[in-house]
Amino acid sequence: MDINASRVMQAETNGEEKMQNVARWRDAPVFSEAERLALEFAEKATITGQRVEPELIARLKQHFDDAQIVELSAAVALENFRSKFNVPLGVEAQGFCIVPAR
Predict the structure, then answer these.
(1) For residue 28, how many C-alpha atoms fall within 13 Å in the half-sphere facing its CB?
(2) Spatial distance between the Cα atoms of 68 and 57, rounded to a whole number of angstroms
(3) 99: which residues sit within 8 A by CB, 6+ positions away?
(4) Across residues 35-57, what is the average pLDDT?
(5) Which terminus of the chain has a smaller tally of CB atoms within 10 A, N or C?
(6) Which backbone phi and psi does 95 adopt, to 5 degrees?
């Protein structure tokens, strides 16, 4: 196996492990600090009643530049939009994440 195939295999394995642990992103060792911040941002931007505070943006800026934060915001907004679209169209969850009970 060449080095590139090894890296792809490692990335796929790591990605699958991250998908399996996304519900416990706060304490799962597979996530980097930057990934945890991105997930915290996504959660705060998604859950009604939560706010993205300036302190979180300041922590994000330690890992991401302004363009990356805008791209992250757009990705979160798109997924939130898509979720609102799916409900009235009857598109069922595909099992990629566990939605916490209210």
Answers:
(1) 16
(2) 12
(3) 93
(4) 95
(5) C
(6) 85, 15
Can you tell me the mean pLDDT for 42-66? Answer: 96
Tell me which residue of 42, 15, 18 sits closest to 29, measured CA to CA.
18
As a residue count, the chain comes to: 102
Composition of the chain by helix, strand, coil, percent to 5: 65, 0, 35
Residue 60: burial class (beta carbons within 10 Å; 0-12, 13-18, 19+):
buried
Task: Say how many C-beta atoms besides its own lie within 10 A of residue 38's C-beta.
Answer: 21
Rounded to 5°, angle at Cα 92 from 89 and 94: 140
Asked whether the beta carbons of 17 and 25 are under 8 A apart, the reply is: no
